[in-house]
Amino acid sequence: MTQTWTAPAVERGEPERVADERTALQQRLDYHRWTLLGKCAGLTADQLKQRAAAPSSLSLLGLVRHMTEVERWWFRTHGNGERLEFPYDPDQDGADFDDLDAADAAANLDAYRQEIEAADRAVAGRSLDERVGLPDMDPADRHDLRWIYLHMIEEYARHNGHADIIREAIDGVTGS
């Protein structure tokens, strides 16, 4: 008998209600990261690849792949000046959402978790006031690290709303 792989369960902690700025931003970002993983928990690879509704190409696995690249882009490329390729969508033409037929869902979720860890390491100990950006970027166009945290929280909030709708369409599960 073969066993069908399902995305593992996650434990999502609640952000503290009173915390210093860096802790508050990190905890809120982590909350959204684990929310996305929670939307995937218990689903098979085929369910993770299921599209929201025609003509949309949104799927839970596509969102995970997209956020893997977004984490890399903002924290490692902008936040730490690393020159890195996009693992799923090198040409930025939608492959992170579209090229799912042969995608390995377990490997993609693992890569997402690894990218989160790499993103956190890339900016650990850096001041929120530090202006960061692409190495060849005009200094006037750079963002402070705080802006990146806020942008990422905003990005996750938007995509977690998509994830709510997709998950409910798959198996009726709703809630946080």
Question: What would you note in describing this structure?
Answer:
By secondary structure, this protein is mainly α. The protein has one domain (about 20-170): Up-down Bundle (Four Helix Bundle (Hemerythrin (Met), subunit A)). The chain has six helices and two strands. Strands 1-2 form a two-stranded antiparallel sheet. Helix 1 packs parallel to helix 6, helix 3 runs parallel beside helix 5 and helix 3 (about 60-80) packs antiparallel against helix 6 (about 145-170). The termini are far apart.
Attribute tags:
176 residues; 53% helix; Four Helix Bundle (Hemerythrin (Met), subunit A); mainly alpha; two-stranded antiparallel ribbon
Please outline what is shown here.
The protein has 176 residues and is mainly alpha-helical. Helices cover 53% and strands 2% of the residues.
Cα-to-Cα separation, first versus last residue = 34 Å
* Annotated CATH topology: Four Helix Bundle (Hemerythrin (Met), subunit A)
Q: Using the CA coordinates, give the radius of gyration.
A: 17 Å
Q: Could you name the CATH homologous superfamily?
A: dinb family like domain
**Poorly predicted ranges (pLDDT <50, ≥5 residues)?**
none
Domain module tally: 1
Placed side by side, the strands forming the largest sheet appear as 1-2
The overall strand count is: 2
**Which percent bin holds the helix content?**
40-55%
The portion of residues forming beta strands comes to under 5%
